[in-house]
Design brief:
single chain, 209 residues, mainly alpha, 9 helices, 0% strand, globular
Length: 209
């Protein structure tokens, strides 16, 4: 790749990673509901889910899914239902907090949930296929390698942004621990927000070809 093109890509990818989106809001909600460890587990889970989209894009699977209205709809609703289920689960656990019956989810479970949330999101595949090719330089050769490398950098920047958000959300949560009632409402709000992300995904439309 030409140096100027790569610099432009880094600037654009950094801006995209820094602008709050569904991924940032998701890890923030998970951190507020489960703490810093849950936030980091969720962050690295969504990162792995993003890597799955990178592989799928390189193999042409993402393009097939986006080209098929049926496949896109199936994946979209699977991801949406999973997010809604996670949101309801988080809300119910927050409600049970008053009776001290809630058991914190293990980091492995939260990690797996993060992987599924991102892997079942066809909007991520659409973003990679629309954004990354703009910066691939066919004259530079190794187009597939350029595509994969730029995707990996984008995933890394997104993960870095999520880590910063986790730290900020964890600090806010530590302040809430001194006010149990407010912490419980925060956990409930996180659950509702996660469910809302699922509804938003369900309403997403397939990108025009």
């Amino acid at each position: 790749m030409a140096g100027s093109n790569f610099t432009l890509f880094l600037l654009a990818a950094f801006i995209v990673a820094a602008v709050p989106g569904p991924g940032i809001f998701y890890v923030a909600a998970r951190t507020l509901s489960g703490g810093k460890r849950a936030g980091f587990a969720s962050t690295f889970g969504t990162a792995l889910g993003g890597l799955m989209h990178v592989i799928a894009g390189a193999l042409g699977v993402s393009a097939i899914i986006l080209a098929s209205a049926e496949l896109f709809t199936v994946l979209k609703f699977a991801g949406a239902l999973y997010l809604v289920w996670l949101g309801v689960k988080t809300f119910r656990e927050a409600r049970d907090l008053a009776q001290q019956t809630v058991v914190a989810a293990g980091t492995q479970q939260v990690f797996r949930e993060g992987v599924l949330v991102e892997a079942l999101n066809p909007k991520t595949a659409a973003f990679f296929l629309a954004f990354i090719p703009q910066f691939v330089d066919p004259a530079g050769g190794y187009v597939a390698l350029q595509f994969i490398t730029l995707n990996l950098i984008s995933v890394a920047l997104n993960t870095l942004a999520d880590v910063v958000v986790v730290m900020m959300a964890a600090t806010a949560r530590n302040g809430l621990t001194r006010r149990p009632g407010l912490l419980q409402r925060s956990r409930q709000g996180s659950g509702l927000f996660i469910a809302g992300l699922g509804i938003s995904l369900a309403l997403a439309r397939r990108p025009a070809s």
